[in-house]
Every structure is written in C-alpha cells, then in structure tokens.
Amino acid sequence: MFEHPAFLFSISVFHKGRKTKTLQSRGEKERKKEKRRKERKKKERERRRNERRKEGRKERRKEGEIEKDREKKKAMSKSSADSQLPSLSFIKGEKSKHCKVGGKKERKKERKKERKERERRKKGRRKKEGRKEGERKKEGEREKEEKEMKEGRKERRREREKKTEKERKLGKKERKKKEGRKEERKEGRKEGEKERKERERKRNERRKENQNIEK
C-alpha cells in the first residue's frame, strides 16, 4: 500500500506544499526585516545630516560674530565721528560704515534686532502697567475688605449694645416682678398668720365652753 505510486505522489505534493509555504513565510519575514533595516538607515542618515547642518549653522554664526567683533574693533579704534554713529543711521544721505560693511543681510538683521528690542520694551511696559493695575486693584479690594470688617465690627457692637440694653430692661422688669412676688408672699404669710390665730382662738373658746359644760 505504502509503495503505491499514487500514495507516494500525494505525499510528495503534500511535503512540497508545506515546504513552499514555510519558504514563502520566511521570505516575507526577510523582506520585512530588510524594509525595517532600510528605514533605520534612512533615519540615521537624516539625523546625521541634520546634525551636520546644525554644526554648520553654529560655525557660520560664530564666524559672523567674529567678523562683527573685528568690524566693531576697527570702528572703535578710529576716533572719527562716523565710527561712533549707531547702525542704520543715515547722515546727509550717506549710509553709516557699519551698513556699508555689513550689506543687505546685515541691515535686515539689525532691523529685526531693533524691532524685537522695541517689542520687548513695549511688553515690559505693558507688564509693568498690568502689575500696577493689579496692585491698585488689590489695594482697592484690601481697603474694601477693611471697610467691611470695620462696618461689621460696628454692627456687632451695636447689636451687643442693643442686647445689653434689652437685657437691662428685662432685668429691671424681672426685679420688679420678683419684688412684687415677695411682697405678695409677705402679705400672704401675714394673712395666713391672722387666719391661723383666729382659728386657734375659736378652737380655744370651743374647748373652754366644752369644759364648762362637763363641770
């Protein structure tokens, strides 16, 4: 049975199929790996390029600053009036030396710098004004609070005084009432005493009469 050609053929096809499938999947993985590797390389290249650009910019900036310093020193070393003039100033239709040396780009940079400086000062002024306004508001609020507190204290004092006055008046009334009750009690006691004495007198009289009858 196992040696039958049809069986052997089916096994060979089956194995072949499996093999091709695994190879196919392996090929996919390899392609993906390759793609990722290429992407990594690309990113690395871009990163290096950006770093080089940054370095170049820094270098150019340094060179520009060195050049500027040299020009400044030259200008300061000369004791002429032109060297002491500010940049971007025009005297009798002529540009200052700094402008002549720097050229168009330098003038643009100077203008930008001056504009930024103006904006910064304006912002500083606004901040200061805002702070002053805030302080004024705070001061006003504080005064208001103090006023309210004072008024509150006065109100409480008035209420206390009213209360004490009320209590005092009530106390007077209560004292009067108490005194009246005392008087009433005294009078009541006196009345009671009189009645008791009267009763005793009558009792004694009756007793005497009874004793006389017995005799």
TrEMBL record:
Coiled coil location:
none
**Stretch list, region Disordered:** 9-215
Judging by the UniProt lineage, the source's domain of life is Eukaryota
GO term, biological process aspect, one: methylation
Gene Ontology MF term list: methyltransferase activity
Biased composition of type Basic residues is found at 32-46, 95-129, 169-179
Q: List, as start-end ranges, the regions of compositional bias called Basic and acidic residues.
A: 47-74, 130-154, 180-215
Task: Give the record's keywords alphabetically.
Answer: Methyltransferase, Transferase
Q: Per its record, how is this protein called by name?
A: Histone-lysine N-methyltransferase, H3 lysine-79 specific
Q: Which organism is it from?
A: Ophiophagus hannah
* Gene of this entry: dotA
